[in-house]
Amino acid sequence: MSKLIGIDQVAEFLHDGMVVMVGGFLGVGTPDNIIQVIIDSDVNDITLIANDTAFMDKGVGRLIVSHQVKKAIVSHIGTNPYTGKQMIDNEIEVELVPQGTLAERIRCGGAGLGGVLTPTGIGTIVENGKQKIVVDGKEYLLEKPLRASVAFLKAKKADKAGNLIYDKTARNFNPIMAMAADLVIAEVDEIVEIGAIDPDEVMTPGILVDKIICTGGYWL
Predict the structure, then answer these.
(1) Contacts of 43 (CB under 8 A, 6+ apart)
(2) How would you write 140-162 as a 3-class SS string?
(3) What is the 8-class DSSP label of residue 115?
(4) Which residues does 89 contact at the CB level (< 8 Å), separation at least 6?
(5) pLDDT one digit per residue (tens) for the chain, 220 residues
(6) 206 phi and psi angles, rounded to 5 deg
(7) Strand ranges (DSSP E) for 66-107?
(8) Burial label, 115 (beta-carbon count in 10 A; 0-12, 13-18, 19+)
(9) Full-prediction pTM beyond 0.85?
(10) Residue 26 and residue 79 in contact, taking contact as beta carbons nearer than 8 Å
(11) Which of 37, 142, 164, 166 has the most crowded CB, counting CB atoms within 10 A?
(12) What does the radius of gyration of the chain's CA atoms come to, in whole angstroms?
């Protein structure tokens, strides 16, 4: 069964109240065409798991501006003033997570682990409401795993089996998010035949990818 779908078919997988992971770092490595489909769909009450809320006019930040996000689980919001304003106005809930901790929580979700122990956040507001565990006399926070119903990724190239290659730093959060969602949809610039990608170059194996969308115009 082919994994290739058109960009217009993304709307079929959207619904109010969904939990989504979106790859990217300040918009780099974010599937912008998929973001536009979400905006056009008028889906609301999204729980967004991403590294950040990007900018007002770039990346997942556009979902903040369109008021479609109910809760954002991110490492920072400083580059998008709309996020801070909506948080102050109680229009959005923001859970700020240290970046390394965020990555490990997603990794735990993908690996089926119960959480990760980290000293990051001890003695700060990050520890509020969280369980502390002492190991060899040192305190750690138990940070619980994160999973999503859908992960939207951005890759440079895919073969028709869904094996992905990312472009330099656009790799960022995409590979770990591919492991931590029930459905994984990748927006790619180029699709090639199976076997055209050297196995040693594969960054996300196709077994993790359910759907592929080619938006770059290169289809071999």
Answers:
(1) 14, 15, 16, 18, 68
(2) EEEECCCCEEEEEEEEEEEECCC
(3) -
(4) none
(5) 799 999 999 999 999 999 999 999 999 999 999 999 999 998 999 999 999 999 999 999 999 999 999 999 999 999 999 999 999 999 999 999 999 999 999 999 999 999 999 999 999 988 999 999 999 999 999 999 999 999 999 999 999 999 999 999 999 999 999 999 999 999 999 999 999 999 999 999 999 999 999 987 554 4
(6) -60, -25
(7) 69-74, 93-96
(8) middle
(9) yes
(10) yes
(11) 164
(12) 18
Please report the domains of the chain, with CATH numbers, ordered by start residue.
7-112+146-219 (3.40.1080.10)
- State phi, psi for 98 to the nearest 5 degrees: -50, 140
**Contact yes or no for 108/102 (Cβ under 8 A):** no
Backbone angles phi, psi at 135, to 5 degrees: -125, 120
| The residue count for the chain | 220
Q: Across-strand partners of 94?
A: 72
What the block records as the tokens of 109 is 């979700």
Supply 11's token pair: 């709307």
Instruction: Find all residues with CB under 8 Å of 191, minimum gap 6, and list them.
Output: 4, 157, 158, 159, 160, 212, 214, 218, 219, 220
- Cα separation of 24 and 26, whole Å? 6
